[in-house]
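Apologies for my clumsy wording, but could you write out the amino acids of a protein and the tokens describing how it folds?
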Amino acid sequence: MISTGDLKKGVTIEFEGNPCTILEWQHVKIGRGGAIVRLKLRNLRSGAIFDRTCDAGDKFKRLYLDRSTVTYQYNADDLYHFMDTSTYDDIVLNEAQLGNAKDYLIDNLELDIIRYNEEPISVELPEKVVLKITYTEPGFKGDTATGGTKPATTETGLVVQVPLFVSSEDSIRVNTSTGQYVERV
């Protein structure tokens, strides 16, 4: 069990019967009343993000998640197939479980799958991935009215703001946590 005093960002707890990760927390002391804790949680099964308030001193069951390395294989409809690199098992996740991670999935990408009680619930992407640009407008010298960037569509459908010198068919490195351009590869 973990009390509200030990909570911090990234800790996984059981909340209302579901595995949840703490995205933000804030300890608030109200004038005459007792202290409360405001939590911003993400349900790992559904991907839903929600806010809850609880009393200071409440206890939660801390969860420990298993991680294993998998390789992305393919998707069919809204099901995404991964292969466990140690057991060669096929693991299937739906679009809701992946969330925005689906925008970074390219063939043979290695990433970590997160399991709770042997049930795969989500994936953890590498910090940066390399994506190929399928379409972007040409940039012209002196065209800096928009701050020197332009939108580019990648092979996964993700739209990223890139510098003017980047063109179609270039490969770029993208930060998976922010979705921003890092460098041309």
The mean pLDDT is 89. The radius of gyration is 21 Å. The chain has three domains: 2-62, 66-124, 128-184.
